[in-house]
Specification:
Oligomer: single chain
Radius of gyration: 24 Å
Order of helices and strands: HHHHHHHHH
Structural class: mainly alpha
Low-confidence stretches: 234-242
Largest sheet: none
Membrane topology: Multi-pass membrane protein
Organism: Nocardia aurea
Distance between the termini: 42 Å
Number of helices: 9
InterPro entries: TMEM64, VTT_dom
Number of strands: 0
Number of domains: 1
Transmembrane segments: 16-36, 57-77, 83-107, 153-177, 197-216
Family: Belongs to the TVP38/TMEM64 family.
Mean pLDDT: 81
């Protein structure tokens, strides 16, 4: 599809409908697995535990796929802590988190990358691509620190905006480490939430939430300042290119 087709009303409508269908599908999946609970998480944990010594290696891909279909990460991480304890469980949770981020980002690229570029326009998409190239890794890390944003949903969006898979994997590993410990430790101490491990997990969660909120606030302010500075330059470009050539007296412009 060429640029003219993308900019036409019919082309924009098709891209909008495609993105809307993706969003509705993800929201429907979230309702089924997180609200209606059509998947029995306890049953999944029992099946994984039945594999014996291989259970941690089985739980990583199973949890990664379940996370990609929007089963809440804290539930999966708590199950990891319950099955494997705080130490092994944290590494299992991290492996599953990286897997979920990679799967979700890949699907986001396949489903929404072209439509997102078409709706944003070439100029804005190129600016976003340049920002992704320079700061994509740390955008993923920062998102993992911000509380209240589902990681899988964010990974789908990152994929639609063109974040490379290696940045998704590395960024989710770095940024998810504190919360992986938090939810896994809480799952491991589910029988005694007054244990020091539970208090430590809660303290780590509070610290990462404060750091993430502060960093997100500064990042948004910085991005807005950059956009405000760019707007006058973008608006003045057509006028400058259409301005007639002015020559000094006695000078032939075609000489």
């Amino acid at each position: 599809m060429n640029d003219e087709d993308d900019s036409a009303p019919g082309g924009r409508w098709r891209h909008t409908a495609r993105l809307a269908a993706c969003v509705i599908f993800l929201l429907g999946m979230f309702y089924l697995v997180a609200v209606a609970r059509v998947i029995d998480i306890d049953g999944v944990r029992s099946m994984v535990a039945a594999t014996g010594p291989a259970a941690p290696f089985v739980y990583v891909p199973v949890s990664a796929v379940l996370g990609a279909i929007l089963i809440p990460g804290p539930i999966l991480a708590a199950g990891s802590g319950l099955l494997f304890g705080p130490l092994v469980g944290t590494f299992v949770t991290l492996g599953a988190t990286v897997g979920t981020a990679t799967i979700s980002s890949f699907l986001g690229q396949r489903a929404g990358r072209d439509s997102a570029r078409a709706l944003l326009g070439t100029a804005r998409s190129d600016r976003i691509d340049a920002q992704v190239e320079r700061h994509g890794l740390w955008a993923v890390v920062g998102q993992r620190f911000v509380p209240g944003i589902p990681d899988a949903m964010a990974s789908y969006v990152f994929g639609a905006f063109g974040i490379p898979l290696w940045q998704m994997a590395a960024g989710s590993f770095i940024g998810s480490a504190p919360r992986a410990f938090v939810y896994t430790a809480l799952g491991a101490s589910i029988g005694d939430l007054s244990a020091p491990l539970a208090y430590t997990a809660i303290a780590v969660w509070c610290a990462t939430a404060i750091i993430g909120t502060f960093a997100a606030h500064r990042g948004i302010k910085h991005w807005r300042r950059r956009e405000v500075r760019r707007e006058p330059d973008i608006e003045s470009t057509p006028e400058e290119t259409s301005r007639p050539l002015v020559c000094s007296e006695g000078t032939d412009p075609h000489a």
